[in-house]
């Protein structure tokens, strides 16, 4: 494929609305990656064989990735760790016909949705819980969950999130409970509000959906697999170890 010009503006170039795109970004762990999860182009007339190319930028670095034909584009996560940690993420989509140097359409300034932080799949809020340290509410209609922490323990979301003991011990259990919702009712994974969770599973290497035929034991094992994948990607044991070690030194 010829190199795509980022400056050319040929006659007939379509400047498409960025709301037609759904792009998931995960940069909370050791690696950064994104997935092009949605392209709503049913009403857009593009030439047959048009391919979609995503340009990811951070600072002065950029990476171009061909996601294939728009009729069946690749939704797999793309590793963009090499772009470094300096600057703000920026994404641009180019639509091109193979063999032609001209763009047929472009989508500028695509804003990604987050996957790896507490504001996307799992939110946090202070609550009056008496002597209970925390509770989890799964909001099935919203496709997310909320950890309620006891406001007698933490004064704010930031304080709770910065506590490594809280994060490493509570979040894996929250993930397990969300997974169990789908283990016992696999059809929920096909509901639109749970699309971010399906993408989250793919990001963490969980490619096999739970089966309606699962026994209780198989449901539990699928949930354990999800938790293990989360803990492995985010190095949860190492984070907790680093928080516990200073306590031992003070004994």
Structure write-up:
The chain has helices at 157-162, 164-184, 195-203, 216-233, 236-249, and strands spanning 14-15, 21-26, 33-39, 51-58, 61-69, 78-79, 89-96, 103-110, 113-114, 122-127, 134-139, 144-150. With 251 residues, it is of the alpha/beta class. It folds into 2 domains: 14-114, Immunoglobulin-like; 122-249, no CATH class. Helix 2 (164-184) runs antiparallel to helix 5 (236-249). Mean pLDDT is 85; it is low at 1-10 and 115-119.
In short:
The chain folds into two domains: 14-114, Sandwich (Immunoglobulin-like); 122-249, no CATH class. Helix content is 27%, strand content 28%. It has helices spanning 157-162, 164-184, 195-203, 216-233, 236-249; strands at residues 14-15, 21-26, 33-39, 51-58, 61-69, 78-79, 89-96, 103-110, 113-114, 122-127, 134-139, 144-150.
Q: What is the total domain count?
A: 2
Instruction: Label the overall shape.
Output: globular
SS content category: alpha/beta
- What level of helicity do the residues show? 25-40%
Rg (C-alpha, Å): 21 Å
The biggest sheet amounts to: 5 strands, mixed
Number of strands: 12
How do the helices and strands follow one another from N- to C-terminus? EEEEEEEEEEEEHHHHH
Mean pLDDT level? 85
Q: What amount of the residues lies in strands?
A: 25-35%
Helical stretch count?
5
- Regions with little confidence, pLDDT below 50 for 5+ residues: 1-10, 115-119
The strand line-up of the biggest sheet is 1-8-7-4-5
N-to-C CA distance:
64 Å
């Amino acid at each position: 494929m010829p190199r795509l010009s980022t400056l050319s503006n040929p006659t007939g170039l379509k400047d498409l609305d960025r709301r037609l795109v759904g792009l998931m970004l995960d940069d909370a762990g050791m690696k950064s990656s994104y997935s092009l999860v949605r392209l709503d182009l049913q009403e857009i007339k593009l030439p047959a064989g048009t391919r979609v190319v995503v340009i990811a930028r951070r600072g002065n670095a950029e990476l171009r990735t061909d996601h294939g034909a728009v009729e069946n584009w690749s939704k797999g996560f793309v590793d963009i760790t090499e772009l470094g940690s300096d600057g703000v993420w920026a994404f641009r989509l180019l639509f091109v016909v193979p063999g032609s140097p001209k763009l047929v359409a472009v989508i500028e300034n695509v804003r990604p949705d987050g996957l790896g932080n507490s504001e996307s799949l799992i939110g946090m809020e202070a609550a009056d819980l008496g002597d209970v340290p925390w509770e989890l509410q799964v909001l099935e209609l919203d496709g997310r969950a909320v950890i309620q922490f006891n406001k007698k323990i933490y004064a704010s979301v930031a304080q709770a999130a910065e506590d490594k003991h809280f994060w490493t011990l509570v979040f894996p259990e929250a993930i397990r409970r969300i997974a169990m919702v789908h283990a016992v009712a696999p059809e929920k994974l096909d509901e639109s509000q749970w699309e971010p969770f399906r993408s989250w599973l793919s990001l963490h290497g969980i490619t096999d959906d739970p089966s309606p035929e699962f026994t209780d034991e198989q449901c539990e094992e699928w949930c354990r697999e999800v938790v293990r994948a989360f803990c492995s990607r985010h190095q949860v044991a190492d984070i907790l170890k680093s928080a516990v070690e200073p306590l031992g030194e003070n004994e």
